[in-house]
């Protein structure tokens, strides 16, 4: 790893939390930054999906993201290209030339000494799995959509009524060879955090978490205990085979894998704990910049378990 | 974060994988390193406990660690103090003076511009939990001891016989308010890796994994599937209440939490999937250097979820 020196320039691809954090650290070292973001705004998934808080510390998104975004927007060391892509990257470590522009449009050139690629993740599109009626039943939503409701302080059904019974279905688009075979690592913790936030908002709602394994690793374990002991959240170990929209409610059919039998429950709202996919811009950036992706489409680090170096000298992953 | 420049010196506290990796990266930038290691040898837990391979990629420990250790030992930029501690750290970011010496002995002074503290982890001492007979029944061992056996290519009972039935008990000293309340994150993956390695060595051994939840998050999920599909490893969802040494075998009593009933099984060997505790040198280093620890004794980063900055300027965690 060779880092650029004070006064040199680094290209940061992606303006989500990781890209912004990298950019703030770089300008702190006196390094110039060219920031390229595919969308019209900075902030990535937390801003796009209007996350209320970030797990597991439950810090408000605003408190974490606003200082990063304003530091970048105010810095004379940073040039920002929104609604833009890196179309091509020529040269080599210490002497890259990036072609930056809109899709198909004319490119601006930027000479940079190193590149940080932080194209992030996207929430799994649950309409890819027909079992859950996502995209058809209006009271079936994803955890990313629930975040927006929590931010608005208003968790309601499509008809405006307050849900009395609510289920979270874990591992949608995760640990499932029909869609994504890996574990997304975070949907357990995020869902448990959300369940507690819903319970604070709607005192008499009943919440059921339908899970394969509870994966609150490390210090997230406290969230799991608090959710049961302080918030009365219920856990069902099971697998959902189908969600049916009855018109007024949602019928969940599945197998309880703890007591070994089928179950059917009626819910007012179903929240799908969707997993993650590679970020929207990952495939395009990987191709334009010449980076390897793994069989699932995520950027491949040079060394397993060390997630900073790409296989191309002078290009780092964040 | 302010990084030292080429030619300046960084103190690295702890010569395990993280400290060695940090030192190698620093010398790559032309920065001098003073490395302080409490024990008589470099390499940390993988060397001390003779790990065979590192999960989840199953790379031989030797292949990962040997290049790090030899790069450090050969570099003219590195001064190594083995069997030594940092007794005190005076000064401030950019101008620290470290007092380095044996316990109680006379100190050598080193002037450094920044400090990296990498005092790592230690395997949970299972004799703290009397249920498992660890330290009394000779055929009850920990995953760290099994690594040494795998490295020797010889998994045998205390009496020299080959085990025909072997159980791994997950979450020993993890997810248990009587000992450690957090999830250690890694003992699922390491145990599954080891079970497959045992099966390759002893073709006709039966292996049972007794678990609360399987926490093979991210891409470790493949290990879990392979262990069942390619290696025939068995999984029992349950909690162990007691291990009894019958003299010739080990009787495990517990509750099967999948079919909801008690179970009793006889095993030839029991492997405890022990969790982690703060590294041996963590408490002493934290005190000498003036760093905060969390309620569990691990070093506390300045910002939650960002594990590099300590709360003291110029001192970094690895």
Descriptive labels:
homodimer; 318 residues; alpha/beta; FAD/NAD(P)-binding domain; 2 domains; seven-stranded mixed beta sheet; five-stranded parallel beta sheet; 7 helices; 19 strands; 31% strand; elongated
Give the arrangement of secondary structure elements:
Two copies of one chain form a homodimer.
Chain A: E1 9-13, H1 17-28, E2 32-36, H2 44-48, E3 53-54, E4 59-60, H3 61-74, E5 78-81, E6 85-92, E7 95-101, E8 108-112, E9 114-117, E10 121-123, E11 140-142, H4 143-152, E12 165-172, H5 187-201, E13 206-211, H6 221-229, E14 234-245, E15 250-256, E16 261-267, E17 269-274, E18 276-278, H7 282-289, E19 315-317
Parallel strand pairs in A: 1-2, 1-9, 2-5, 9-19, 11-17, 12-13, 12-17, 13-14
Antiparallel strand pairs in A: 3-4, 6-7, 7-8, 10-18, 14-15, 15-16
Summarize the structure.
Chain A is built from 7 helices and 19 strands.
Task: Describe the overall structure.
The structure is a homodimer of 318-residue chains. By secondary structure, chain A is of the alpha/beta class. Chain A has helices at residues 17-28, 44-48, 61-74, 143-152, 187-201, 221-229, 282-289, and strands at 9-13, 32-36, 53-54, 59-60, 78-81, 85-92, 95-101, 108-112, 114-117, 121-123, 140-142, 165-172, 206-211, 234-245, 250-256, 261-267, 269-274, 276-278, 315-317. In chain A, strand 1 (9-13), helix 1 and strand 2 (32-36) form a beta-alpha-beta unit. Chains A and B meet through helix 1 and helix 6 of A and helix 1 and helix 6 of B.
């Amino acid at each position: 790893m060779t880092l650029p020196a004070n006064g040199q320039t680094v290209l940061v691809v992606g303006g989500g939390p990781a890209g912004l954090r990298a950019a703030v650290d770089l300008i702190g070292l006196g390094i110039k930054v060219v920031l390229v973001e595919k969308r019209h705004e900075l902030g990535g998934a937390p801003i796009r999906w209007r996350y209320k808080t970030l797990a597991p510390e439950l810090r408000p998104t605003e408190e974490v993201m606003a200082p990063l975004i304003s530091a970048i927007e105010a810095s004379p060391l940073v040039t920002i290209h929104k609604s833009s892509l890196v179309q091509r990257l020529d040269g080599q470590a210490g002497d890259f030339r990036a072609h930056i522009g809109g899709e198909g449009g004319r490119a601006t050139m930027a000479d940079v000494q190193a590149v940080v690629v932080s194209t992030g993740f996207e929430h799994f599109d649950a309409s890819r799995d027909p079992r859950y009626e996502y995209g058809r039943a209006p009271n079936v939503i994803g955890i990313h959509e629930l975040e927006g409701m929590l931010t608005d302080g208003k968790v309601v059904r499509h008809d405006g009524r307050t849900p009395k019974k609510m289920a979270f279905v874990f591992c949608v688009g995760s640990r499932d060879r029909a869609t994504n075979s890996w574990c997304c690592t975070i949907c357990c913790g995020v869902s448990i955090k959300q369940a507690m936030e819903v319970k604070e908002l709607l005192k008499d709602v009943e919440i059921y978490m339908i899970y394969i394994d509870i994966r609150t690793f490390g210090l997230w374990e406290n969230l799991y205990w608090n959710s049961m002991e302080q918030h009365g959240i219920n856990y069902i170990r099971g697998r959902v085979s189908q969600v049916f929209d009855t018109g007024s409610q949602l019928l969940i059919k599945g197998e309880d894998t703890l007591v070994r039998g089928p179950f059917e429950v009626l819910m007012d709202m179903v929240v799908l704990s969707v997993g993650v996919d590679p970020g929207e811009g990952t495939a395009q950036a990987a191709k334009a910049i010449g980076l390897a992706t793994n069989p699932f489409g995520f950027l491949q680090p040079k060394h397993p378990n060390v997630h900073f170096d790409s296989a191309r000298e002078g290009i780092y992953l964040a």
